[in-house]
Amino acid sequence: MHGRAGSGRSPVDEGAGKTGGGRGLMLDTAFLITSFVTLFVIIDPIGLMPVFLALTQGMSSKQRRAIAIRASVTGIGILAVFALFGESVLGFIGISMAAFRVAGGILLFLTALDMLFERRTARRQHQGDEIAPEDDPSVFPMAIPLIAGPGSIATVILLTGQHPGIEGFASVMAIVVAVIALMLLMFAISGMVERVLGPVGINVATRLLGMLLAALSVQFVLEGLSAFGFAN
Length: 232
What we know:
Blueprint (H helix, E strand, L loop, with lengths): L1 H5 L4 H33 L1 H11 L5 H25 L1 H6 L4 H20 L2 H9 L10 H10 L2 H13 L3 H23 L1 H39 L4
């Protein structure tokens, strides 16, 4: 009796403690859902599927699978680095996020030009089945900047900033892996999409996607310039 009275906690207090724990769980669940939706929209696995198909046009299923895996692993690694160290990575070498956006936009625009004028296809016709290192899109532009671009990098920096520590980092990276796993699933069915569209459909889709990538690259550049105060 005395021991229970000396504890200073009533059944109401104990119930409040349980309610508080449940609220914390709800907040964690809300954070996970919001983070997943945000990264899914930013990385856009569904939107990347036709881009992947255009960039790997004429390749075998084995080559596409290898490129998809390399792009995914590279993208996860880059996002993990930024989730751990945040803006200090860019700040250490004196690069702002705005400058990163401009650089990513310019590089993406060069890829868009290749897609518009079929330079990649012409190179493959002279090289046969072997893919030259400069023609492998796994690192650029798939991993950078399409998967680990300015938007996704900024997102993981913000999300890990909301929940600092190893638990926050683990939660954010688990979400990153889940989104990229869905992206791999989209890439796995890209061959089926290619067979349905045929050569003419792929050619049309490649040029249209080249235009979209060009517009996206210009948007990256404008956002970077806007942050510098040049394009308000």
